[in-house]
Here is the input.
Amino acid sequence: MAFEIGLLIFPDITQLDMTGPYEVFTKFPDARVHLIWKASGPIVAGGGMQILPTTTFADCPDLDLIWVPGGAGMNPLLNDEETLSFIRRQAENARYVTSVCTGALVLGAAGLLQGRQAATHWMSREMLTAFGATPVAERVVIDGNVITGGGVTAGIDFALVVAAQAFGEDHAKSIQLGIEYDPHPPFDCGSPESANAELVAKARAAATQRQAERQAAVDQAAAHLAASQAT
Here is the structure.
């Protein structure tokens, strides 16, 4: 029986959020990996890469694993009821409800992170609290059947952790060896904890507009979620 994996894609997605985990997911036993969006036409990722969905919300099968990535394009999804309803519907029976990077905020807006610990990109970490989640500064966080990864490149770590959870460590290790995942970054500045303060400040300054727009979308989504739960 196929292990059905659904990867949400959307315009202005960070493609590495998706392509890293995708490489690992395709090596799961009997995996069927679906790229899902509302419509069947190609979407344009951040940086210009075109990605073609393989199924739509309407045609997607019931999933064993649903996964949400991040990128600037996820901001509109926080208040997109069609997308949030699809995620909630699939999450009801999925074995694993997952995200990488700011995809965690979309899970939060769908009401799936309340009372959970979760990871996301460091620049948006504290926004998780608006959805009742506890942010954790880790590459991968497991809380029940919810598994979340940190920013962008953490997606490979995340997917290998999922592989170990679903099929055992030996299988996960075989995938890691097969893709030669043995990172040795040239600089020790891949997190705000290791980078110097000046570099962190420059990164925050460069993202000021995006983060302000994201905060506004988070606030709106959190208010809508609270109102829906009060009725």
Observations:
- The domain at 3-230 is CATH 3.40.50.880 (Rossmann fold).
